[in-house]
Design brief:
Blueprint (H helix, E strand, L loop, with lengths): L1 E7 L1 H5 L3 H10 L3 E8 L3 H7 L9 H8 L4 E8 L2 H9 L12 H5 L8 E3 L3 H11 L7
Antiparallel strand pairs: 1-3, 1-4, 2-3
Helix pairs in contact: 3-4
The chain binds uridine-5'-diphosphate and magnesium ion.
């Protein structure tokens, strides 16, 4: 059993894709263990994506991530991290496999609808960023 953190990004919320994203994860057998609709400050977005602080897209990404509400969720299941990554598709929607969330809904390499932790180490940083252990059921 594994847990991972996923986010419906501001573009996904604007496109009314909250239900669609959760549906796809549930269909893969993942269970929602925690769920919140929030809006990040610029500072909170910058700390969430701190691993990318030296990348050229960091400023633009963190501005985008704080432009409107997002949905953060903790998902639980066997191989939850890899399952979410497969369901999302490649970072660049142009490279994303057909039928993935990003292939179906992303319009831009930055505005790619969803986030998913990329490793156990990332999940261990990202889940507690939004959920206390008491919030996960
Ligand atoms: N991103 C971007 N330009 C790039 C690479 C990434 O705007 O060249 C954005 C995109 O929104 C991506 C996020 O930064 O989802 C985090 O990048 P990462 O490489 O971690 O991709 P992910 O894990 O989300 O697939
Ligand atoms: Mg990543």
């Amino acid at each position: 059993m594994e847990r991972t953190l996923s986010i419906v990004k501001p573009d996904g919320v604007k496109k009314n894709l909250i239900g669609e994203v959760i549906r796809r994860f549930e269909q893969k057998g993942l269970r929602v263990a925690g769920l919140r609709l929030i809006r990040l400050s610029r500072e909170e977005a910058r700390n969430f994506y701190i691993v990318h602080k030296d990348r050229p897209f960091y400023d633009s990404l963190t501005t985008f991530m704080s432009e409107g509400p997002i949905v953060v969720m903790a998902l639980e299941g066997d191989n939850a991290i890899a399952t979410v990554r497969e369901t999302m598709g490649a970072t660049n929607y142009k490279d994303a496999a057909p039928g993935t969330i990003r292939a179906d809904f992303a319009t831009d390499i930055e505005r790619n609808v969803v986030h998913g932790s990329d490793s156990v180490k990332s999940a261990d940083y990202e889940i507690p960023y939004f959920f206390s252990s008491l919030d996960l059921k």
